């Protein structure tokens, strides 16, 4: 756990934990979105001054990218584990149920940080959108490869459009995230998962 010492008012040094401050910033971005999170919101939650934030993390945009790294490392671990499941259907079930757990967590805001941040607009937000899109493309590419493997192994029918199937699955993810952020219950999302699995083309 890294600590940073920055200049506090009247020249007195202040030490704070970078990991804790970043986790606090993530909570603000997740609940308010990139544009909705003001510098005052961030510094108050992080327990630091604006100069300390700039010194440790750079500007708001750089802070968001670091928060997104933390979000992927901690909140999306289930996606990496899903790719290790023995069948394509098991991969999908692990992903969808993991998404429900993440979106319905009692200690985190509802919805998906990536989906929330894609609604940001303005010149500064363009790099935010580009980063989120690049990360999503990387995740989709990994899933496409896993489903291609399933097709080679006979776990998926030969005529399945893997790219289309993966895009459909991500549309379900995004829809669940929007619903979670709009007040859907766990039972509501469980029905979405159950219906999606009923329509799955593989075993």
Automatic annotation (TrEMBL):
Record-linked InterPro entries: DNA-bd_HTH_TetR-type_CS (IPR023772), Homeodomain-like_sf (IPR009057), HTH_TetR (IPR001647), Tet_transcr_reg_TetR-rel_C_sf (IPR036271)
Residue spans binding DNA: 38-57
Pfam family, one: TetR_N
Keyword match Repeat: no
SUPFAM superfamilies per the UniProt record, alphabetical: Homeodomain-like (SSF46689), Tetracyclin repressor-like, C-terminal domain (SSF48498)
Superkingdom of the organism of origin: Bacteria
UniProt domain HTH tetR-type: residue ranges: 15-75
Cross-referenced PANTHER family: HTH-TYPE TRANSCRIPTIONAL REGULATOR YJDC (PTHR47506:SF1), TRANSCRIPTIONAL REGULATORY PROTEIN (PTHR47506)
Keywords: DNA-binding, Transcription, Transcription regulation
Keyword set includes DNA-binding: yes
Protein's name according to its UniProt entry: TetR family transcriptional regulator
Record organism: Sphingomonas hankookensis
